[in-house]
Amino acid sequence: MPIRIWDIPRQEYFYSGHRLCPGCGAGIIMRHLAKALGGRGIISHATGCVEVSTTYYPESSWGVPWIHVAFENAAAVASGIEAAYKVLKRKGIVDSEKEVRVVAVAGDGGTFDIGFQALSGMLERGHDVLYLVYDNEAYMNTGIQRSGSTPFGAWTTTTPPGKNWPYGEWRYKIRKDLLLVAMAHNIPYYATINPAYITDLYEKILKALSIRGPKLIHAFSPCTPGWRINDDDTIRVSRLAVQTGVWINLEYENGVVRVTTPVPRRKPVEEYLMIQGRFRHLDRKAIELIQKQVDEYVERINRLVGREVIGPVER
Ligand SMILES: Cc1ncc(C[n+]2csc(CCOP(=O)(O)OP(=O)(O)O)c2C)c(N)n1
Questions:
Q1: What is the pLDDT of residue 270?
Q2: What is the pLDDT of residue 169?
Q3: Cβ neighbour number for residue 258 with a 10 Å cutoff
Q4: Atom 5 (ligand 1): residue with closest C-alpha?
Q5: Which of 19, 29, 47, 113 gets mutated to test ligand 1 (max ligand atoms within 8 A of its CB)?
Q6: How far apart, in whole angstroms, are the C-alpha atoms of residue 221 and residue 132?
Q7: In Å, what is the CA distance from 234 to each residue of 14, 29, 50, 153, 191?
Q8: Which residues lie closer than 8 Å to 273 by C-beta, 6 or more apart?
Q9: Quick check: 300 and 253 in contact, CB under 8 A?
């Protein structure tokens, strides 16, 4: 039976008092990750917004065991922790029945770009680790620089719109697709999650934690200063991403792709773009180009699923 909102435990493991921005999407994701993990896990956390704003020494917001690692190696450290537990259990130093869930957390910069090699290695070696990337679509903590996950047309400090780059980008590109990365590594579980669909989000984290082997979760994570949105627009933007097909909630399990939030009729992508300051410079031509990109992405997912789970745009 699917999880309902009241099935999510009230017990908190991600405490208030942190310095995340008001409305930070990643805060919502971390809170639910910590709830799902409860007292039975350990988090290996790459540098990024969440890391620097939740662990300002000597305080910490984390009620679960947590380790700070370098920007590039959340997956490598998580692999080491998992391997070490295996040895400790084999030697009888740790109770072999003890359930230890190892989780790696990183932003998109630390995943799509700088930690990609460590992530690929972890997936390929088959470590029993859940890797969760909160994707705010740029290097936010260091001042909003473009990453390998920044969408076409988005303003960042390294892709400012101007005469040479009218759309804030220098090429028409499709960002790296982690679903295909997961498929290429043949891992048992991959899922996308979104803070506007909280029961779906929580259920997928729980499910991932229950599966043995490497798991990858890709989280949509609005950033209020980076996306230039209001503090109280995080959920609205998240929901619009799904309703326009910019973001598709899905899971990939045992070789099968399943969309968990079907959208029979899509809204035009313009509705998603125009409430964000980072896209406000776009003209009609650019918006049409992005709509075409989204249409192609939707078509690809429909083809993978084998039927039209995401429908056409309704104007
Ligand atoms: C090897 C290395 N290069 C650069 C940095 C500086 N640095 C720290 S956090 C960060 C940005 C992180 O971006 P992302 O992973 O997307 O997370 P976010 O800040 O957006 O949450 C950078 C560039 C670093 N710590 N280590």
A1: 98
A2: 78
A3: 14
A4: 71
A5: 47
A6: 12
A7: 19, 12, 16, 20, 21
A8: 153, 279, 282, 287, 290
A9: no
Q: Return the bridge partners of 263, or none.
A: 310
- The answer, as to whether pTM is greater than 0.85, is yes
Give ligand 1 pocket residues (Cβ under 6 A): 47-50, 71-72, 106-110, 114, 136, 139-142, 147
How far is residue 290's CA from residue 255's CA, in Å, rounded to a whole number? Answer: 29
Q: Which residues are within 8 A (CB) of 52 and not within 5 positions of it... i.e. 6 or more apart?
A: 141
Task: Work out the average pLDDT over 122-150.
Answer: 97
Asked if residues 15 and 228 have their Cβ atoms less than 8 Å apart, the reply is no
What residue type is 217 in one-letter code?
I
User: How many whole angstroms from 248 Cα to the centroid of ligand 1?
Assistant: 26
Residue 310 in contact with residue 302, Cβ under 8 Å?
A: yes
Kindly state the helix (H) or strand (E) to which residue 135 belongs, with its residue range.
strand 129-135
pLDDT per residue over 18-56, tens digit each? 999 999 999 999 999 999 999 789 999 999 999 999 998
Interval 158-174: pLDDT, tens: 999 998 888 887 677 78
Ligand 1 center–CA 263 separation, angstroms: 34
3-state secondary structure of 133: strand
14 burial via Cβ count (<10 Å: 0-12, 13-18, 19+): buried
Residue 111 contacts residue 133 (beta carbons within 8 Å): yes
Type of residue at 115: G
Instruction: Round to whole Å and give the CA distance between 255 and 177.
Output: 16
| Residue-by-residue DSSP string for 200-245 | HHHHHHHHHHHSSS-EEEEEE---HHHHT--GGGHHHHHHHHHHHT
